Amino acid sequence: MPKPRKMLGSVNSPYIISLMHLIETQSKTTIAKWCIDYAEEYVLPIYEKAYPNDNRLRDAINASNDWLDGKVKLPMVKKLILEARVAAREAEENPAAQAAARAVAQAATTIHTTTQSLSLAFYGCAAIAYDHVGIDEKAEVYEQIASEECTKMEAALRAIAVENEKNPAKINWYC
After folding, report:
1. Alpha carbon distances (Å) from 44 to 55, 61, 71, 102, 127
2. CA distance 131 to 96
3. Which of 23, 72, 103, 132 is most buried when burial is the number of CB atoms within 10 A of its CB?
4. pLDDT value at position 175?
5. Which long-range contacts (CB under 8 A, 24 or more apart) does 65-73 make?
6. pLDDT, tens digit (0-9, with 9 covering 90-100), for 42-92
7. Closest Cα to residue 31, out of 39, 20, 23, 42?
8. What distance in Å separates the CA atoms of residue 159 and residue 38, rounded to the nearest whole number?
């Protein structure tokens, strides 16, 4: 059995390019809020289904939201994000949960590293695909799921996007 890919999609995929263009029009705060909210609603449940007693991902999400609200300092949030990354490493026996943990950790990271916003797409698509169809499907099936999921992600960002937002994030996607 081949090892599942960690991420789905490609930086050259039309749906990723479209998402990147929209992300570049928004502020760091808008991008972070979108990533965190999307991860919490659509990706976190995949991890929690597999590990219902592990709160590390939810703690990272909550702390990132608290940071956005000015309630906590960044060093405390970074510690919880690191714990979410540890959860991802520990979930290697469950590809869907592992991809979900990676997506959630990276979504939480967007509060200080905006370029991680695409990680939500790459890891999130993998988590959703593996959760829905497992790890033994043809590449075309995964590509279709990634395209559909990224379309949903883009719609979610458009729903909260600020037209002509001041100070859009300056992102170097190829750093």
Report:
1. 10, 9, 22, 10, 9
2. 5
3. 103
4. 46
5. 65/36, 67/111, 68/29, 68/32, 68/33, 68/36, 68/111
6. 999 999 999 999 999 999 999 999 999 999 999 999 999 999 999 999 999
7. 23
8. 12
Dist CA 34 CA 153 (whole Å): 9
The pLDDT confidence band at residue 166, using thresholds 50, 70 and 90, is confident
Classify 170 as helix, strand or coil. Answer: coil
How many whole angstroms separate alpha carbon 84 and alpha carbon 80?
A: 6
Helical ranges in 74-135 per DSSP H: 74-90, 95-109, 117-133
Condensed to tens digits (0 to 9), the pLDDT of residues 85-111 reads 999 999 999 999 999 999 999 999 999
The number of beta carbons lying within 10 Å of the beta carbon of residue 5 is 16
Contact in structure between 163 and 25 (CB atoms under 8 Å): no
Place of tokens 């263009």: 21
C-alpha span between 151 and 75 (Å, rounded): 33
Separation CA 161–CA 129 (nearest Å) = 26
Q: Are 1 and 136 in contact (CB under 8 A)?
A: yes
> What is the longest distance spanned by two Cα atoms in the chain?
49
